[in-house]
Write the structure tokens for this entry.
Amino acid sequence: MVAVVLDGRATAKTIKTELAQKVIALKERGITPGLGTLLVGDDPGSHAYVAGKHRDCAEVGVHSIRIDLPASASVADVKAAIKDLNDAKEVTGYIVQLPLPFGFDTNNMLELIDPDKDADGLHPLNLGKLVLAGGEEMTSPLPCTPAGIVELLERYDIPLRGAEVAVIGRGVTVGRPLGFLLTKKGIDSTVTVLHSSSKDIPDAVRRADIVVAALGSPHFVKAAWIKPAAAVLDVGITRVETATGFELLGDIDPGVAQVAGYLSPNPGGVGPMTRAMLVRNVVEAASSIN
């Protein structure tokens, strides 16, 4: 058996087509959604990711502005840029691209974002709303990668209600918020969040109907750990030096494709979904404007 590919690129393309129609309707009401990005430093991965977000916006008709600051920027410089984005009427949602250079208090910077313009869904207020959520539909922005994971699973009709889910990694951008989202009433999965101090990760993974690997350790999850026909999503990625340069490796060993029923590859799986969810947050924020 070879796993069915959970194609994040194709699914994100469909979502962006749907969003483009919403943007047209908003513009007919005189509202233009706008994304802002604040990038500090010269990390190549961050620059590539931000560029991709702006391309996504252009595809769906969302206005976007980009603020790039050098790695030498001061805390005051970054705070001033955040204030400008909070005040900019043409920006309905924005992100502070992470990671910030060494020396910055990331949580402090995120707390300065207007929660209504939090396109990444990582402001403490919005994360708190996710923790407190009941069965009602969420109106606050959701963290983009967890939202993209759930959207991808749902669009492939993979059952979530009652499903055993193993999430490997407890980071604030994926692991922890994903656990809250999957256990929300209406989704109703049973989630085990695994981390560096978990006693028997392979055993916990073997019980799972769905496995999400988000730890950033190349080929960490082995084929022998996977329940036959399980859905496996490769989220973590590591830049590994090779004899000819660098290679990007996910957390899932290639052999998993011979055991799993569904596999979200890396790249090409959750990454495009994350960007699509960010654009959706921007469009939804614009939709709430009277």
About this structure: DSSP finds nine helices and eleven strands in the chain. The chain has a mean pLDDT of 95.
